[in-house]
Structure prediction request, 285 residues.
Amino acid sequence: MKKVLVTGSSRGIGLEIALAFGRAGYQVFATMRTPSKATTLSETIKAEGLPVSIHKMNVNSDISVKAIMDEILLENGPIDILVNNAGIGLNGSIEEMPLSEFKAVFETNLFGAVRCMKAVIPAMREQQSGCIINVTSVSGRLTSSPLGCYSASKFALEAISEALAQEVKPFGIRVGIIEPGIIDTDMAHEIEEVNPSIYPSSKRMADLFFASLKNPTPANLVAEKVLEYAESDSWILRHPVGPDALPFIQWRQSMTDEEWINRHCLPEEEWYDAVERDFGMDARR
Prediction:
């Protein structure tokens, strides 16, 4: 039975990933900062008799990651698949977001993933096989205010993943990047809430998420893609997920940097008209 470790498993995409692997017959170590909040996961594991165990691990802590990883490796042997899913999605303009929040986003979204990768790679390298899957976002390929900080952390994780793929491929270790679009998660619903800001982009992005979530894409769609990649022999690095993911990426690629910036500086009505024209979505509310 192959062994999978999933971070950020208490809710949303991480929860669905842990269940998908468990239902597929993998031994799953579902890690999270606060296991007491994982009631849905716990109840599902018990009801379905899944081979999933819950572990308290804070990816922001060197000590916590080392302790849990050492414990799991000692008792169960090497991890075959690591899924770095833990992340936070604070949003706000560059001017208005406190520096402490910038650091918090990077600590979880980037350094947390790096800690976990460094913990599993030696054993994977020794056994000449393994799979590392990093869940980033469409925001790891394009950036729009007020998600500059979140995007920066995801851009950074994509860069690390691309470099790591070059390093570990000779040792039989695959690296995959999963790039969800707007998914029906707590994080997405937090973005759809309008935060007071001197910049109009805050309300516009909230309205875009609000409109998109009227026809929500479920988190289990991302879980299915993660499982599909893990079970494949693919060496393809990037995998957009969701009906809007690839269109968003292609939309950005169709513009120069200056066109992209100017598009987000349009007067209010012109901006909403452009969204409706490009995506058939009325983001006004």
